[in-house]
Amino acid sequence: MSAAERDLAAAHAEVKAEITRTDTKTALLLAFVGALLAGAFTVARDLPLTVPAVVVGSLGLALLVGAAGLLLWSVRPNLSGRHGFPLWATLTADEIGDAVARDLAADIAGLSRLAVAKFTCLRRAVDLTLTGGALLILAALLTAGGAA
Description:
This protein is mainly α. 84% of the residues lie in helices and 0% in strands. It starts with a helix and ends with a helix.
């Protein structure tokens, strides 16, 4: 195996590892967002909420639901891609070996685009989660302070 082939193999492994990292982070954040939503509904159900607290809390919950949607979009499988196993599923056994040997750089490029898209969704979901959580904290402070 030449140095260039080793470099391509290493780059391919790195991109696949980044996709795995993203999916793991997404799963953890999705569980966290779900717990926040469940906790907020449980707490809000038992409290006398002021109108400002309802408005701010509802906006926070909407942002958390949006974050959950982005997280789900991030882990949604892309089966129409022309790299990796979606491509291999359309090939014969003989064609797979040729495609892998010939198109490793194209596979790296396609998987890298997929990884960037996943990280972008994850980043946006984190931003929405932080903002939604801050709004829920503000709603709790408004409720505790009795602002009208």
